[in-house]
Amino acid sequence: MSSPLDAPSSLVGRPLPRPNLARLMQGRAQYVSDLVLPRMLHLAFLRSPHAHARIGAIDLAAARAMPGVAAVFTGADLAAVVTPWVGVLSHLKGLKSAPQYPLAVERACWQGEAVAAVAARSRAEAEDALDHIGITYEPLPPVADMETALDPATPVIHPALGDNLAFERRFTAGDPDAAFAAADAVVTADFRFARHTGVTLEPRAIVADWNRAEQRLTVHQGHQAPHMMQDVYARHLGLDLAQVRVVCHDVGGSFGLKVHAYPDEMATVAIARLLGRPVRFVADRLESFTTDIHARDHRVTARIGIMRDGRITGFEIDDLTGIGPYSVYPRTSAVEANQVVNLVGGPYAVADYRARTRVVFQTKTPMCQYRAVGHPIATSITEGLVDLAAARIGMDPVSVRRRNLIRDDAYPCDSATGMKFERLSHHAALDKLLVMMDYDRLRAEQARLRAAGVQRGIGIASFIEITNPGPAFYGVGGARISAQDGATLRLDPGGFVTCQTGVTEQGQGTEAIIAQIVATALGVPVARVRVMLGDTDVTPYGGGTWASRGAGIGGEAAWRAGRALRDNVLAVAGSILQAPPEGLDIADGVIVDAADRRARLPLDELARLVYFRPDTLPGGMQPELVATRHYLPRDYPFAFTNGVQASWLELDPQTGFVRLLRHWVVEDCGRVINPLLLDEQIRGGVVQGLGAALFEHCRYDAEGQMLTASMADYLVPMAGEVPEIDIGHVVSPTAESALGAKGAGEAGTAGAAAAVANAVNDALRPFGAVITEIPITPETVLRALGRV
Amino acid sequence: MMRDITITLAVNGESITQTVPPRLHLADFVRERLGLTGTHLGCEHGVCGACTLRLDGAIVRGCLVLAVQADGGSVETIEGVTDSGEIADLQAAFHQRNALQCGFCTPAMLLTAQDLLRRGGVPDRAAIREHLSGNYCRCTGYQAIVEAVEATARARAQAAP
To answer: The CATH number of the domain where B115 resides is what?
Structure first.
């Protein structure tokens, strides 16, 4: 029997606009930064101006006397009511970190670490009072440079840990030494990936409210994982889970940045509890730049072996990454490095691979998971090497990929690192990409323009993306982060359906796709489905939305709940209509005969009878118009998607400027639930990758002072710099779920920078110059050309 | 600290008299004093554009104008421009093309786009991109926004006598 998902009436796969956008477009949304509660206080933090300093005496008297100030707190005050946390997971063997507190205790370890907090009537008054806190710092030597973090002469940031090495992993598959010895050519390159950050347009925002009468904490927070935060707050404030409610309203951008536990947010919650009144903290942009998690910051020495016929013999990487002074809680800061090891070489049928990664502490802003964790690093290394190797043997970049990409008929199979691929489509995606971009014509145009002195480049990057993570990601390591997710459906008396889901919305369109899935599963118009999410008091226990899990896990749970409710409804309908339920169906909100589609009973009439006239139902019938289902993929520890991107750009060798002309993406996320939302989600991911490629950089000086901590200094892509981005799809659904969706949130970011870097190097080829670092600024280009 | 100052201004057509500290900027004024929270704060450096609103008919950064500078002026926010129906077609085009995700940049993006559209004609995509380049969006690829603005320009040009 074919799935109702494929029926003509199915809403899954349709480009339906998102519901409930009006409030966002009319300025009537409810972001946490808009929330005002009675008697609410505003927090401002005194933050360390030093990258590393011992905290001396703190004099709060003058600050406490300032107008509007309700209370002032130090690290010791809050350490008394919040237990410290350590960002480690047991399955990342050897990972270590130091205890962390809401406010620094004794020592500040990065510029921007919160040291004291003022709660006042307004944010302005709280900031005024900060100026009156008397504090002395004894500056300590900063550990700014990750390259020297492990040198014996470098101070150990946390002496109790013994050294500055947070985590190390070595991995070998096959016989890489033999593979490189047998290669006709070996190409080595040193890749550098700058620190950058997420820059959500709405900064981190939290309003915490401790109700002394109910002994209950309500936290309104712009966050991706409400149940995770419920657990974190309860655990570290010594409350029962039932005493904590976390509510996520509209969230002004997240991108993985809002999936962590931040010290200043822990402080906000603790202060609300101490004061017994609502307390609000909304980061300003300076605070965002110096305290939001940063990402990337890798230096990787890598090599590839290749035969003259284009066969890749092996990959090898040696990765070093700096994560700041602490591994971030509770997901840890070793995951990105671990992903890099897992993903390098992933699209290719290459068995011989060696990797090492070292994750080191430094006194800079903590680093942790940001969109496409590790993927852009792994893709840039792999695809950079493949292009360099192709150039070395004089082979076209497309031909070398065709020669080595895992065959589309080879699945299921494992990668060299043991990643399990159910079904990918590298070759079909590449074929489609070449048609979309008209590759041969573009190459001809490039040659023609090159003869005229115009330097254009084409860059291609194939990639894989990890999605739908199971407990192997966090749960097995001891993190209380749900891998499963649930959906509860209720048919209301009016024939409307409410869906409570554990996955969350930050603009991707979670609410929209869940409604489409439920409407299709049940047989009702999509406008009759109302989705409720982001509230631990309301939704089934779940993980939230991250790692592209919303569609694949949350969507499947909603599908199963929808089919279960349909069964329940048809049982009631069969009883009322005295017809076998299997002979009935639901279409457009009406019970119909399955065979001739004749209308038999509207759902609202069925619901009316169930709720208001149950006395008229046949004896013994107890209708259940609520259904809950949960879902966790079990056949694979995570799903994999794949895709390929291409960049077409022009490089000015006189100025070093790069102008992006066009970008193409073909990706395979399994079943497409809503192409309208999917395509712009991929484009948005691409643009974040373009930012990493050309603009975004958290620059620091040797003292560990951030030099690009404002939006005027830290560049993100604007409309004028972004090219038109064409999206195509290949569809290889996972067979593990009925829905077959695999997720798409990170595909764009995974491969965009690699495609741009390859295109820049393609444009530079006539000059014999190669760039293996991002961002590629005009200065980078001119340096590569020997012009500065 | 300087003494508070009493200002009178029109906000979305309504006359407002309030006493404000001189340091209060216009975006905080409409958000905190009037509850018009559709004007968002992304950077308070005048870069991201999320606080865009109209002062005496021209779009300005609400974070770079002090409330006292708006004394005697006329301020329009996204709420007012929505209620007047002035940008209903543009909002519909944003909805149809999914030209927003988290929506935090959207009210300001709409006001900036309308500023271009009010000049009339059908700007090409490069001109639209250029005009919107003072408004950051971190979620979308800007493409759907550009398409929505372009479609609205075409529709208005066709409807014009």
So the answer is: 1.10.150.120
